[in-house]
């Protein structure tokens, strides 16, 4: 241990080492700046989260409606009962969320920030009209794929 403390090699920090460190720092700064130039357009593209959530809701609804065996006509308009074999699926509004329940159990949120939802069935087309909490309206029609048992 004493040998290392009394070492006579005191060359210091060389010019070559400092240039190498400067080069590495310049590369990291370039990546840092590139990240912020990339991040700006991405944030502007995905700033409207309700549109993304609405499209995901539409995909979920269409997948649920693709192979149902029976569908009950929505009497009150705010809930919908589907049958897949012997399993019942209920899509309804609870507080400010449209949710899905399977076999009268569970709570799978499909869409949030909802003030009012209306389902209407016309033949094999289900129309969904949603009034959002902020006052905007969204609507979509879905094709119901009925497969008898």
Short note summarizing the structure:
The chain has about 150 residues and is of the alpha+beta class. It has helices at about 1-5, 15-45, 50-65; strands spanning about 70, 80-85, 85-95, 95-100, 105-110, 115-120, 125-130, 135-145.
Return the structural class.
alpha+beta
Mean pLDDT: 85
Element order, helices and strands?
A: HHHEEEEEEEE
Number of helices: 3
Strand content: 35-45%
Poorly predicted residue ranges:
none
Radius of gyration: 30 Å
Provide the helix percentage: 25-40%
CA-based shape:
elongated
| Largest sheet report | 5 strands, antiparallel
Alpha carbon gap, first and last residue: 85 Å
- Name the strands of the widest sheet in spatial order: 1-2-3-4-5
Q: Let me know the number of strands.
A: 8
Keyword list:
single chain; about 150 residues; alpha+beta; five-stranded antiparallel β-sheet; three-stranded antiparallel β-sheet; 3 helices; ComGF; transmembrane
